[in-house]
Amino acid sequence: MTPRTLLRLLGIWLAVLSACSLLIFCSVRIDRNRAPTGPYLVSVWERGSRSARTVVASDPEHALQVAAERPGAQRTIERIVDSAPILWRSWLLLGHSVVPARDGLSATYKGRTAYATPNDLLKLEAYERTLALGPLSLVLGIDVNQVLGALARELETEPAELLRHASFRRFAVVSDAPYPRQVTEADVTVDAIKASVQSAARYLARNQRRDGSFRYEINTVTGTESEEYNYPRHAGATFFLARAGNQFHDAKLQRAGQRAGAFMKDRVTLRCGAHDCIGEGDQVDIGSAALALLAYVELIAGGNEEFRAPALELSGFLRSQQRADGEFQHFYSVSEQHPIDIQVEYYTGEATFALSSVGRVSGNPKDLEGARRGLSFLVKRSPLFLGARYFWGAEHWTCQALADLWQRAPDPIALKFCLDWQAVNRNLQFESPPLPSQYDGGISRGPFMSPRLTPTASRLEAAVATLEVARAAGAPQAQIELLEHQIKRAFAFLLRYQFTPGPTHLMPNAPRVNGGFPGSPIDLHVRIDYPQHAAGALLRYWELEQKN
Amino acid sequence: MRITFGVLNAVSALVLLVGVFAVVQPRFWALDVPAAIIAFVELVSAVGLLARLPWALRALTVSAWVSFVLGLTIVSLIAITIVFLRGIHGDYGVAALAVSSLIVLLLVPYTVVLPALELLWLKRQRAESRP
Questions:
Q1: B42 to chain A, minimum CA–CA distance in Å?
Q2: Under an 8 Å CB criterion, which residues of A touch B?
Q3: What is the DSSP string of A485-534?
Q4: Cis peptide bond N-terminal to A412, omega within 30
Q5: In angstroms, what CA-CA distances link A214 with A218, A223, A229, A232, A482?
Q6: How far apart are the CA of A504 and the nearest CA of chain B, in angstroms?
Q7: In this predicted structure, what is the pLDDT of residue A392?
Q8: CB 3.0–4.6 Å: which of A151, A287, A380, A488 could bond A232 by disulfide?
Q9: Distance CA B8, CA B42 (A)
Q10: HEC states along chain B?
Q11: Do A448 and B95 touch (CB under 8 A)?
Q12: What's the longest Cα–Cα distance across chain A?
């Protein structure tokens, strides 16, 4: 090949590639900021299900009036802003062509058009589906089979027939639904924070069973409950309830915390060697014991002395699991009565925080020493590891342990560690513009997925703890301001999505989930740790502001 | 040049083999098969060039064309994917755009530039060997 031929070949390739790219880009893009011009999709929802739908070109307020006036009915109006064709009738391409939580999909078949609006897709729980492609996992914007099924039902045909012969368009809408709420950093006031925490704590208290356990996970769009249960999360929820009860002097919340604590004390306490531990079956983890211990300490602070002896038992168990280097053995074989030296995420931080916390109740210097060694182990990083600035674990418990220990055993290395981690989190924080305003402040989990609330919330727990220590340690004002700004933006994100009351038109039993925090903008389940982490962070900030 | 291209082909075959089969997990045929083909033809041509075997230039021609065509195809697919996702997600996909562009820039020297230089050299070799 001569240089001239090579250049000609590359030139042709570049021209064809550029033309194809331009064609694809112009075909698929939609302008979300332009003035809406499309039709209105008017829907009436009853008991969480869509009971009527009409498409009108104007006067949507007068559409479906009779249906909207039925008791309990709610009408939503979504207006199409812009739309674009799906380029090929391909299953995979359909899945990649819809932006989660923002786009809808329409299908036109034999002269009729059916719309799956963002509300419909939330109701179907059809946003973001993981597709196993060989050994790879791809996250698609929608669950194609589910959406095709729904559109096919409306058009009275089969999904496969629809995929073969319909023409599809994705579309963006403006909606009159008041969810997510419009909350900015300026709206994050002490009063707003207190109201949010109380609401979340009441959610947990409302969803507590007589035996002290909780409805573990509620799917708010179907009203169904998960059969699963998890003791570390039960203990975490108990810890939060007890704290909220103590801080707000709310007897109802304190009683709920006490019942949840009694559930652990009386029903799931086992014997692990010389000490008590928490769990069921042949093997237990130290996470349940650590979070139960945090809850017991908080319950003791509320005047429940019956938790003192169990707390001392659990602190003995945690200390017995600690290695000489400060790390913990995370599991214990109940059947064989020996520790198992395996580590998983979170538990070392939880155990460290718990030992620090119980140190105030027990007065035992071994608890404080165990916590100090645990924190030191957690924040130790080799100076030779260049990736130390870029690779981080989930350190929310670590930084809460730092704050809890600061007055008794200050660790400046741990403070620097937590400040550095928050700097990394700031880089992961969504910023609007250019990103969608409703996501501003949330922590990114990838470019094509909506942010989840709990990872943001758990980082916030650590951020507020770090802020507390940074202020106490006299950190530079600029650094403190960065942290405060980061925290308030993230709180605004959480408050936008809290169910106060949430998208009630999609919920068969909206009052039951009032105050809960969902998993994400597209995952409207509430698991007990979602309000625990979100409201736990808010409560920590509220406490800090009270001290100031 | 014969030795230079032999060494470069051997190095890029090893980079591909180690990069795809030792570093990237899990296994996926869509990546493994093209990478294995390119690495195989490059290794064969490297052996031929370094050992001065009679079929070395023919092997180099095959390896250069296979690498060049597959390289341009991979770069095209990545570019079209970037454009498509940018069209769908708008500003939301800036990070993915940056990462994908970096991947393209890292691929181009091995999959486009090197085979293009080899094809140019082969042309000159043929011209020089004519009576």
A1: 19
A2: 1-3, 6, 10, 13, 17, 20-21, 24-29, 32, 96-99, 133-136, 141, 170, 433-436, 444, 447-448
A3: HHHHHHHHHHHHHS-SS--GGG-TTHHHHTT---SSSS--EEETHHHHHH
A4: no
A5: 10, 15, 9, 13, 37
A6: 28
A7: 87
A8: A287
A9: 9
A10: CHHHHHHHHHHHHHHHHHHHHHHCCCCCHHHHHHHHHHHHHHHHHHHHHHCCCCCHHHHHHHHHHHHHHHHHHHHHHHHHHHHHHHHHHHHHHHHHHHHHHHHHHHHHHHHHHHHHHHHHHHHHHHHHHCC
A11: no
A12: 89
Fold assignment, A185-547: Glycosyltransferase (1.50.10)
- Cβ separation of B79 and A6 shorter than 8 Å? no
Neighbouring CB atoms inside 10 A of A538's CB total: 31
Contacts with B84 from chain A: Cβ below 8 Å: 24-25, 28, 96
Break chain A into its structural domains and give their ranges: 30-175, 185-547
pLDDT in tens, A283-324: 999 999 999 999 999 999 999 999 999 999 999 999 999 999
A20 with B80: Cβ contact below 8 A: yes
State the Rg of chain B over Cα.
17
> Can you give the three-state secondary structure of A319-336, one letter per residue?
HHHECCCCCECCEEECCC
Q: Domain coordinates of chain B in residue numbers?
A: 2-129
Question: pLDDT tens across A412-451, in order?
Answer: 999 999 999 999 999 999 988 878 889 999 998 877 889 9
pTM value? 0.90
**Exposure string for B24-55, b = 16+ CB within 10 A, e = fewer:** eeeeeeeeeebbeebbebbbbbbebbbeeeee
- Read off the tokens for A299: 């319950």
Closest CB to A21 among B72, B79, B96: B79
Distance from CA of B9 to the nearest CA of A (A): 19
A147-189 pLDDT, tens per residue?
999 999 999 999 999 999 999 999 999 999 899 999 999 999 9
Got the DSSP string for A332-357?
EETTTTEEE----SSHHHHHHHHHHH
**Taking a C-beta distance cutoff of 8 angstroms, is the pair A417, A398 a contact?**
yes
Look at residue B99 in the predicted model and tell me its pLDDT: 81
